[in-house]
Design a protein that fits this description.
By secondary structure, this protein is mainly alpha-helical. It has a domain of 117 residues. Helices cover 54% and strands 3% of the residues. It contains 6 helices and 2 strands. Strands 1-2 form a two-stranded antiparallel sheet. The relative contact order is 0.06.
Amino acid sequence: MAFGTEELRVLRRALALALHPGPSSAQDVQDCLRLAESVDEATREGARLRTFLLADLARYRAALPGTAAGYLTLMEEALGAGHRPAPDDMAALRALRGNPVAAALLDRCEALVEQDVRTRLARRSVPASRTGTGTGTRTRLTAIPGGKPAERPAQEPPRRDRPIPTPGEVFPPRRKPSTPPPGPDTPPRQLAAV
């Protein structure tokens, strides 16, 4: 979202009022209200554009492989707009991985999916442990990313960590490749009329 010169002036004034409260003029209040309405409208417009973008992405994905170039462009744009790849996106990118752009997007999407899975697992696996004086619960940080696990108190029995899922559990199975086009020495086949 980009602000114009006048909007930046109003934003600067609103921040100054928030940091140093004091009397404000009716004009300042009106300007702040107009800026808030503009930001709300830009947010709604952004949501509408994302909805259209994802609908286009689904249409292009449904028409693959003939729409590969358009699909890959839309996928890149959708990821830039915050879209998290769905299983259909992953399957489509795997089918197109012979294309260098698709291979790069597949790597990017696999990293996003792995990050989402790790985040969900981290939320689920944080244990609620009993405090020493009552039945209240608290969460405990058990490890720092990239660091070593925290030491546990001696009286607390060790707990079993949830296993990390395998790629086969996280990612859907690959689609079977379509039959190759007939070669020069392949006998012609008759097509059935529909």
